[in-house]
Amino acid sequence: MNKRGVQRDSAVQAWNPLGAVEHLSGVFQERSAMTGEAESRATDIRRTLLCSSPVEGLPGWETRLYLIEYPPGADSSGHHHPAVGLGYMLRGTILSAFGDEQPIAIREDESFVDAAHQIHTVSRNASKTEPLRFVIAYTVKQGEPVTVLPA
Questions:
Q1: Could you tell me which of 10, 33, 84, 119 has the fewest CB atoms within 10 Å of its CB?
Q2: CA 101 to chain centre
Q3: What pTM was computed for the model?
C-alpha cells in the first residue's frame, strides 16, 4: 500500500466483486430510486446507495456502501468528504489528487482511501471512451451527506 492508501495486491485480484456488486446494484437499484439515494449531477456521475447499516455502539451513526459510476471523461474535481472513504475500483481508471498533491492513477482491482476534509482537486475518469465504476464505504452521522459538492 502506498502513502495514498492505494493497494496493489495480486491476492485481491483473486476475488471478483464485480458480479456481487452488479447483483447488489440490481437488488438495491429499485430501492435507491424510491428513496432518492441514486443521484445524477450535471456531469452524469451516478452515486447509488447499495446498502447502509447502523454502527453498533455509536448511536446516530451508519456505514453506507455506494456504487459510483463515471461516464467517459467525467470530472467531479472540487468536492470533498466529511469522512474517510474506503474504496475498490471495479472497472476503469480514475485520476485522483487531494490539495496540492500530484494526481495518481487508481486502476481496476485496486483499493484506495479517500481523504476526509480535503478538497479532491482532481477526480476524473482517465478515459474519454470507457466508463469507470467503483464501490466506496463511508461511516457518517445518519442523514449527513458523504460528498460535498462545490457551490
A1: 10
A2: 19
A3: 0.72
